[in-house]
Amino acid sequence: MSGDDAGRASPLPVGGTPALVTGRRWFFPSALLHELDPDAARAGRRPRRTARDWVVDFSCFLLAVVVGAAAADALVDNPHVPPGLAVVDQVIGALACAAVWLRRRRPLGLAVAMTAVSFVSDSAGGAGLIALFTLAVHRPFRYVAWVGGINVALVPLYYWVRPDADIPYLVSVPFAVVLTVAIVGWGMFVRAKRQLMVSLRDRARRAETEARLRAEQAQRLAREAIAREMHDVLAHRLTLLSVHAGALEFRPDAPPAQTARAAGVIRESAHEALQDLREIIGVLRAGEPDDTGRPQPTLAALDTLVAESREAGMKVALDQRVEDPAAVPASVGRTAYRIAQEGLTNARKHAPGTEVTVTVTGAPGTGLTVRVHNPPPVGEVPHVPGSGQGLIGLTERATLAGGRLEHGHPPGGGFEVRAWLPWQ
Fold it and tell me: Where is the signal peptide (predicted)?
């Protein structure tokens, strides 16, 4: 009995049931493995005995035989028992010991049967105690209370009908009651310990699942952030490439100075696009800090962006009303920079030749407002495909920063992107 259900518990692997069953199956009782395997429990499959189960069952059988043999030997020397009855008692005890092998399959039925058999057979006492212990381990308390209570109630009557030849009645009854209660208490303790193991395993599995979901969510958010960054950075550069490459294609007779200027813009834009792409790819290399990457743009870099757009041939008017752009928080300034960059990119694609106005106002406590407006284009504008992902990404950026972004056609015509960002 000591090895059956007391089972020395070891930490459960977080990896789940397969590692537990395949790696250390011999160490755990089959009943516990059945509880730890939800698929087997739902399918109603009977757990197979492990090597440990076979050892424990054989030990229980051997213990029942030893106890039964000792009781049979005492029964022969008892003058109150006729010889013929002693032989019948031994036969019943042998059958009870053989029935111990059924204790895992029918714990309740075996315990009830052993209650009746133990009352008429001294040799079945060991098997009865093992059956009662198994019932306490594998069944809820209500079954244990009924069967254990009947066993305790029958103890005085048993020793009254079949008194022990060597031990007085007043000693035999309390000893048997205490032994029965101890067996039941031990079995309930083992059951509680198993339930604790199952609870800890389920808790570990839930924690693992939650950790995996959090990791997946973090990866998804990181991918979205990288996608937004890649779109905002590369769209501006590639638009410059497209505009000036198109000018060279449709104006082959352009003056050499203009052609050289367009080629220089294409070369510089391609170089900058490659640099930006390397910087973004460096973010994807987990655990490898990008020491060679350029610093992220802030609001102070807005003048450089406007100058770059003017060199590319755009008409841009910058109305910078922030007294100290360097004092703007880096995250807010970077978001404002990306909004202005995307607004200039869209104006270059959909309203070429118009003068774009970029207005930045704000102060600490009131927030930062960024406005990019372009009037309607004059004449026919070549169709430039667009998916609208840039404006969607800008809206997400502003929302994540705690602000808001609006875009559309103002009453005076043209197109406008207007964003407000918090500035504590």
Answer: none
